[in-house]
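go over whats below:
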Amino acid sequence: MSDLPRKAMTRTARLAALPLGIAGRATLGLGKRIGGRSAEAVTAELQQATADQLFKVLGELKGGAMKFGQVLSVFEAALPEEVAGPYRAALTKLQDAAPPMPAASVHAALAERLGKDWRASFRSFDDRPAAAASIGQVHRAVWQDGREVAVKVQYPGAGEALLSDLGQLSRVAWLVGPLIPGLDIKPLITELRNRVTEELDYALEAEAQRVHAEEFAADPDIVVPAVVAQADQVLVTEWLGGTPLAEVISAGGKAERDRAGHLLARFLFAGPARTGLLHADPHPGNFRLLKDDGPAEGWRLGVMDFGTVDRLPGGLPLPIGDSLRMALAGDAVGVLEMLRAEGFVKPTIELDPDAVLDYLLPIIEPAAVEQFHFTRAWMRSQAARIADPRSPAYNLGKQLNLPPYYLLIHRVTLSTIGVLCQLGAQAPFRSEMLNWLPGFAEPQTGPSAD
């Protein structure tokens, strides 16, 4: 693949073909059931074939389609177990891999952006991509001063592809909506579109990564690679080794899972408190577990890809910690008042405070105990409770509103919890919140998020 497929008609046709293929397989499946095969066997076969087609197309298109697939992949833990199996492998593939851009195209891009003598900046440059993501691919190299580096090169036409894909995906959102109970797909796509311009700007990404790298330079637990150079649509950073989190999820032992989960929870809360920025792309491909021969308590978490961040100068908004603290204390009236003040409950909506508290308490269980074991079963139970029309939680949830200010924070938190559940990590979530979440340990005064 020499370039992103940029012709609108070609890209549209690939996405538009998805529902036709799915419908065709459903018809074929009906014939097989009439022919005597069990419904369970036919359903499993259809789910596998649908997953293969859906994520093959998303992966090949790269751009917004693959970005959307990566975002969906962290919600895999919410799928019912009888459905999760066929989709799990296909979703995970999108977290670290995509068809590569040929070496000639990479060389041309580097010559255009770094100059014709770009090779002089490197002692060596590996033409084989080390990783491929939604808008660019990464090559391993050795910088002129001897440091091992990662060279991220943006795909030609990435911006056009992102916008085109996300526009088309909004029209076929109904296909993937049923995969994740309780998740409204269209607002997610809208929010991704709003972040496209920022993610395409490698200068903004470099600045966000510099802030994190400087803040965590001496940290014993979190590692952020330093920025070495940046020019136009090329970003050079120090190389980050370690075990990809996707491998920890698929094959890691309990010590690896628990340590990775603990540090992931810490970074979720400590990052905004210490940098004023929220790393907003928490899929497993962006994290590495750095192990040594010592005990697990000394292992570190490497963090990459700061192309999407939320700017939170005061850290996470104070009302989040305040409302969680009040909910755990049983202050139903106070919680409802704060939700109303922040825009989660519109002025015309009347709700019972105790019903709101009953809705929230199961969701915030990780904040209530010293150690919480994140599991797929727990996440599935929460998703099913909110998505079941017969459930009081379903009816109450439909009356709640998500203010734009909180949209990205909400997605990042849910995504991180999804990864924790994929890890099956037992983590001291509460202690990290007590240390880093404003208002959770004790009442504070501060500006409200208007």
